[in-house]
Every structure is written in structure tokens, then in C-alpha cells.
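[Discussion] Sanity-checking designs against the backbone

I'm trying to build intuition for which residues belong where. Below is a C-alpha cell string of 622 positions. I'd appreciate it if someone posts a full sequence so I can compare it with mine line by line.
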């Protein structure tokens, strides 16, 4: 290009390239030679003239003849100023090199790289979505240990304020294994994976770092490698098992307390069994009536003790399974407390304790089961007596607090340690220092108290200033208004009066020979005529020969059970009006339901209270 108008002076190759004739092109301005494309060249030419130095543009599109069919060809254009003898630049020397294939290749590479980046972003998004749904912390690092990807749980375990490279994390955190042995940072699962080692998954570790924060983790880590098997990073998975560890410790503690409870149970059962065994030996040789009477009284005391132990266990089982039924009615709480004091009076007097009662002048009316409420307060009074030294002081107060009746039982006995207070109502818990003071019992009385109070819609709490500082148990029960109390008041039951069984014909069916024979002897003493059968089939055979108005039957028998026996008896027309009473060791609600469905009139639980049995035998029939 020459002159002020940069007239084009092409060589033949340039004319061929742009399909132009040299004769019609020489001397014409570039805007006429490349209409619409001169602007792309102008900047390069002007820059070369201005800088008086060569300038190169690597990618300029111009209309030209090209083997490439993908749009206009691409050129690399080099422009160098032409100097005259005076150092002026009257023209520019331009060289055109077609770079179409190179430009297309670069474009394809750029598109491919863009597609790769897009696919990678999509893969990372998918991976992020996946790990965000996992119930564990997941994190990826590069080969330096720097986090590259993590989910919310991992970021929660390792806050963003915490240094994020492995060496920095090691300086911030401390870790111990499940046995309390410190784990140095180079032995952490992530550090070992970063060295390319195979790490056993599921390692349990205790981490501390953030002030006041202790986290039990189950940690797994593995190295990440590329196609060439070169290490490119790690993948770590962590699960917070702190709650699980707390639960494990609670289970261990409960198991320990259960073992202690079983030891107490064995001890308490051996206590009455020993005198019973001795008494049996005495009866083998005793001829003196007074001796036999003494042994008989001892038997009654010890059997009552065993029955009480078993009843306590059954009570806990029934309450925990929700199978206890309260017979609620409107009650005056002062009268319930008086009954509880009468029940506990022998234990209180035995310990020579001084009992003080302080009841509110206004009536404290509640809705509840009189037997169960008496049991609650008698239990607290018994505990206060048992766990106090001889000559101790017990104070019972009852007052109104807004809409609640509040009853407090306080003693100056051995007290409760700070460690025991949170678990004093738990099953199987019993303070170590309480055993030497307790005069028998399984240590489950407070569990019963709490459960029964809750069934009455109330609450119970324990307080103590420490060992040998006494203790106080406070029960809150919702009050009734006077009008409501009077509407719900039920008349007291009349005392049971023993009735004669004269004229009654009773068949006793039990595979336990001693149980059947001893019950027969007792009922005969009350005037009944009895027969015994030691199996269900034997009972059916006997009923063909005798007339029985009542059948007392066990449920668990080896040939046919009591339910089947009852059904077969009900199928006999001659026995359709007989009274059927189950006397069994099975006392759950499901067992009672089965008895009812089999046609059994009453379901009594062994060891049966003779008063309840006589009530069942003398109750009017429909």
C-alpha cells in the first residue's frame, strides 16, 4: 500500500487469493478492494505506520478464495512500514497468510473446552446435590489436603472459620480413639489417605477443637486417583455418633444397675427362703403344738414377703406396658394420707421415728385410685423410715398451691448424693450407701411411685442437700373443685364378711399337686366339698362322675390348657350353669381377655388372695 491513500499494489498470489485482477486493483484504495472488510485491516495498518514498526494481527476474516467452506477465510496479516531515503514512511508492506484451518481448530478446541467445563460444572452440581442428601458429612480434597467440595454436614462439623488445609486442621483439632488414646495428626484417616494408604473404614474418634465442643465421629477416608493411578486427592466421610455414644453409655449404666438389681433380688429372695427351708425341717421333727404354730406364723410372714417382691416386679411391668387400670373416684387427700400412715406405721414404729403431720385446713380433693394413692404415699413413708437412722424425724405436709395439691415427705436420713438425684426414679437404681439401711426390698419403689403419680396426671421430684442431709419427695396432684368432688364421690366399700361355703361342690384343676391339694384343704375348712384333678383331661373325666357347681382351673397345663378345658365344659349341657374361675400365674390383660372369650367367669392371679377368692365364690351369679 502506497501513498497517502494507501493505494493497493498487489502481487499475483494476492490477486489469485482474493479473486481479483491486478489490472483493476492496482492503485485503488483498500476500501474499494475489500468493501466491508477494510475496517478489520485499517487498525493494523494504522498501528504499523504510527509505531513505525511491524504489527501483526493473527485472526482477520476477509472474503477470499479458500479450500475451507466454513465461512470467510481467516488470515494472519503482518504490516511493516516502508521507509524512504529521508526516513519517512510513504507506504506499508503487508503479507497475508491464510490461517483458516488453524482458526477453525482453535474454535473447535475452545468449544470442546467449554463443553468440558460445562460438563464438569454439571457433574459437580450433580455430585453436590447427591452428597447434600447424604446423612453424613462428605468432603473431597486435592492432593495438598485443601477442601474442594463438601456438603452442609461436613461444613457443620468443620466450620468455615476453621483452617481448611490438613496441616492447619491438625494444629486446630485434637483426636482420641475409642479407648481414649490420643491419635497424632499423621495417623488421622484423612492424612493416611492423602499418603495413598488404604484406611480401614468406620474408625471411631473423639474430636475436640471448638471451645466446649466434643464430637464423636465415625470416620472413613480413601485416596482418589486419576487414570494414570496418580494421587489427586482424598474423599472423607464422617458421621456424628455423639448421641449414639451417649446412648451406649446409658445402656452400659443401665446394664450395670440391672446387674446390681438382680443381685439385690437374689439376696431378697434368699432371705425368706432360708427360714422357710429351716421351718420345713422343723416341721419334720416337731411334735410340740406351740412350735408348729410359731413355724406356721413364720411361714405366713415370709410368704407375704415373697409375694410383695413378686407383686412389685409385676406392678412395674404392668405400668411400663400401660396395662394397669386405675379405679378413679373423688377423694379427700387427707384421708388417703391417713391410710398411708396406718399402712406404714409398723415400719415407722420399728425405727422409733418421730412422725409429724401437717395438713391444710381446707379440703384437698383429688380424683384418683384410693388404693394406688395410698400405695404411693406409703411407699414414700416406708423409704423415709428405712433410710433413716433409729430415732429419725419424718415430716409429712399437705397444702394447696393454686390448682394443685402438694404433698411433701421429708426425713433427716442418709440423703441422696448429687450423682444419684437425676436417676433416683430410674428402674434398677439404688444408692450404694442405702443397702445397709434398707430392711428388705428391691429398690424399685420409687419407680412405681413416679409411674403411678404420672398416671394420676401429677408429678414427683426429689431433693437432697447431699449424703447424711436427709431427703424430701414432693408430689403434685391436680385439685378438684368441691362441687366436682362431691359429684364424683363414691361410697366406701363395706368390709368383707367371710361367708360359709357349706354345700358348695368345687373341683380344683391344677397340674401342681401341692397347689391343688393345699387349696382343697383350705376350702374344705370353710365348709366346701372339694375334688382335685391334676390335668385338663382328668378333670373332664371326673366331671362325668361328679356334680360340681364350681371349677377352679389353672391355665398352663401340659395336656390341654385351661382355656380349652373351659370351652369343653361350656359345651356340656349339664355343666352350662357352673361357675368357672381361673387361678393362674398369667395375669396380663391379654390373658384375662382369653379367659373371658373361653367362658371363664373370673380370672384370679396366683398367689391368690383368699379374700378375693371367697368374694368370687360367694358372688351372686347371673
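Best answer:
Here's mine. Compare freely.
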Amino acid at each position: 500500500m502506497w501513498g497517502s491513500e494507501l493505494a493497493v499494489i498487489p502481487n499475483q498470489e494476492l490477486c489469485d487469493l482474493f479473486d481479483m485482477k491486478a489490472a483493476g486493483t492496482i492503485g485503488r484504495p483498500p476500501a474499494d478492494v475489500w468493501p466491508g472488510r477494510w475496517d478489520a485491516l485499517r487498525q493494523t495498518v494504522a498501528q504499523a505506520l504510527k509505531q513505525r514498526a511491524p504489527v501483526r494481527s493473527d485472526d482477520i476474516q476477509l472474503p477470499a478464495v479458500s479450500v475451507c467452506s466454513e465461512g470467510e477465510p481467516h488470515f494472519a496479516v503482518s504490516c511493516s512500514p516502508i521507509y524512504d531515503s529521508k526516513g519517512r514512511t510513504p507506504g506499508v508492506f503487508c503479507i497475508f497468510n491464510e490461517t483458516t484451518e488453524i482458526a477453525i481448530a482453535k474454535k473447535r478446541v475452545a468449544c470442546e473446552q467449554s463443553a468440558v467445563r460445562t460438563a464438569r460444572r454439571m457433574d459437580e452440581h450433580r455430585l453436590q446435590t447427591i452428597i447434600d442428601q447424604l446423612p453424613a458429612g462428605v468432603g473431597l480434597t486435592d492432593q495438598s489436603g485443601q477442601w474442594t467440595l463438601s456438603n452442609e454436614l461436613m461444613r457443620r462439623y468443620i466450620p468455615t472459620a476453621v483452617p481448611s488445609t490438613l496441616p492447619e486442621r491438625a494444629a486446630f483439632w485434637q483426636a482420641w480413639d475409642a479407648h481414649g488414646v490420643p491419635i497424632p495428626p499423621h495417623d488421622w484417616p484423612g492424612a493416611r489417605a492423602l499418603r495413598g494408604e488404604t484406611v480401614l473404614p468406620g474408625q471411631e474418634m473423639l474430636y475436640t477443637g471448638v471451645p466446649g465442643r466434643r464430637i464423636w465421629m465415625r470416620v472413613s477416608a480413601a485416596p482418589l486417583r486419576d487414570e494414570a493411578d496418580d494421587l489427586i486427592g482424598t474423599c472423607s466421610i464422617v458421621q456424628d455418633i455423639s448421641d449414639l455414644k451417649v446412648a451406649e453409655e446409658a445402656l452400659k449404666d443401665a446394664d450395670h444397675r440391672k446387674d446390681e438389681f438382680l443381685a439385690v433380688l437374689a439376696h431378697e429372695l434368699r432371705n425368706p427362703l432360708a427360714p422357710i427351708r429351716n421351718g420345713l425341717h422343723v416341721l419334720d421333727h416337731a411334735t410340740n403344738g406351740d412350735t408348729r404354730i410359731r413355724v406356721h406364723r413364720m411361714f405366713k410372714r415370709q410368704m407375704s414377703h415373697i409375694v410383695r417382691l413378686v407383686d412389685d416386679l409385676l406392678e412395674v411391668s404392668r405400668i411400663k406396658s400401660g396395662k394397669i387400670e386405675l379405679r378413679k373416684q373423688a377423694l379427700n387427700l387427707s384421708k388417703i394420707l391417713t391410710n398411708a400412715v396406718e399402712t406404714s406405721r409398723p415400719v415407722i414404729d420399728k425405727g422409733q421415728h418421730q412422725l409429724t403431720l401437717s395438713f391444710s385446713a381446707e379440703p384437698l380433693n383429688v380424683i384418683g385410685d384410693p388404693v394406688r394413692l395410698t400405695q404411693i404415699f406409703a411407699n414414700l413413708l416406708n423409704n423415709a423410715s428405712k433410710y433413716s437412722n433409729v430415732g429419725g424425724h419424718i415430716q409429712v405436709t399437705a397444702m394447696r398451691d393454686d390448682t394443685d395439691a402438694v404433698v411433701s415427705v421429708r426425713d433427716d436420713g442418709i440423703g441422696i448424693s448429687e450423682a444419684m438425684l437425676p436417676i433416683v426414679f430410674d428402674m434398677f437404681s439404688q444408692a450404694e450407701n442405702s443397702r445397709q439401711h434398707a430392711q428388705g426390698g428391691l429398690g424399685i419403689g420409687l419407680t412405681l411411685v413416679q409411674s403411678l403419680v404420672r398416671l394420676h396426671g401429677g408429678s414427683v421430684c426429689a431433693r437432697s442437700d447431699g449424703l447424711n442431709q436427709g431427703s424430701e419427695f414432693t408430689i403434685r396432684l391436680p385439685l378438684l373443685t368441691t362441687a366436682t368432688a362431691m359429684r364424683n364421690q363414691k361410697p366406701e366399700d363395706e368390709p368383707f364378711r367371710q361367708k360359709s361355703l357349706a354345700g358348695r361342690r368345687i373341683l380344683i384343676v391344677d397340674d401342681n399337686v401341692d397347689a391343688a391339694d393345699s387349696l382343697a384343704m383350705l376350702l374344705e375348712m370353710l365348709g366346701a366339698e372339694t375334688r382335685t384333678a391334676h390335668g385338663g383331661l382328668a378333670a373332664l373325666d371326673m366331671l362325668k362322675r361328679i356334680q360340681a357347681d364350681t371349677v377352679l382351673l389353672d391355665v398352663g397345663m401340659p395336656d390341654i390348657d385351661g382355656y380349652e378345658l373351659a370351652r369343653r365344659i361350656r359345651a356340656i349341657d349339664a355343666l352350662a350353669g357352673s361357675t368357672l374361675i381361673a387361678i393362674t400365674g398369667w395375669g396380663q390383660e391379654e390373658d384375662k381377655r382369653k379367659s373371658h372369650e373361653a367362658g371363664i367367669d373370673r380370672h384370679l392371679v396366683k398367689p391368690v388372695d383368699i379374700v378375693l377368692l371367697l368374694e368370687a365364690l360367694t358372688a351372686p351369679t347371673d
